[in-house]
Amino acid sequence: MIRPARAILRKDLLLEWRTKESVPAMTLFSITVYVLFHFGLDRGSLDGDLAAGVLWVTLLLAAVIGVTRLFAAEREQGGIDALLLAPVDRTSLFLAKAAALFLFLVAVELVAVPAFGLLLLGPGLGGALPELPLILLLGDVGIAAVGALVAALAAETRARELIVPLLLLPLLVPLLISCAQATEPLLRPEQGPEDLARWLGLLTLYDVVFVLVSVAVFDYLLED
Q: How much is the pTM?
């Protein structure tokens, strides 16, 4: 299972490196939204719950672009049928797609999060370290697991650009709440983390549940 997943992941990463379709679009979208908030809110800087909300809503909306494009190569070239006919565990496909989306999100955040700090946070991100990277990584795991499942469900539909956000965003509401609540104290000017362990625990529980559910239903989803 690991070797086929590694091969599919390598193919997806090489394809993204050559075509540059998903990560640049996600990054450009995130930075554009932060620029719009920078000028549209008419405030010198954001903090607390508003800053956390802007950060996570933007990252989740950027993730929709990556999820929509996750099966693009297979859909456009008929590769899904070939993968289904291959004598490999179909869980390998889920693991590869989820890992690819996770890496795409990390690459986007390496640019988008510093841009967020520069444009919308007066003192910068120094006060949010080192807790913020951990929250981001746990959030990325949940987005990757749910995103790979939704992308597979919408891969063969004609209205996938509509179906992906309609299915993805409601499933990510608990993750958004947990990530925003865990991040909000880190972005206050004078206060540190509050109940961070509880929110990290909820994020971990969300990740474990949706990874297990996705692995369990992925084979049946492809059958349909």
A: 0.89
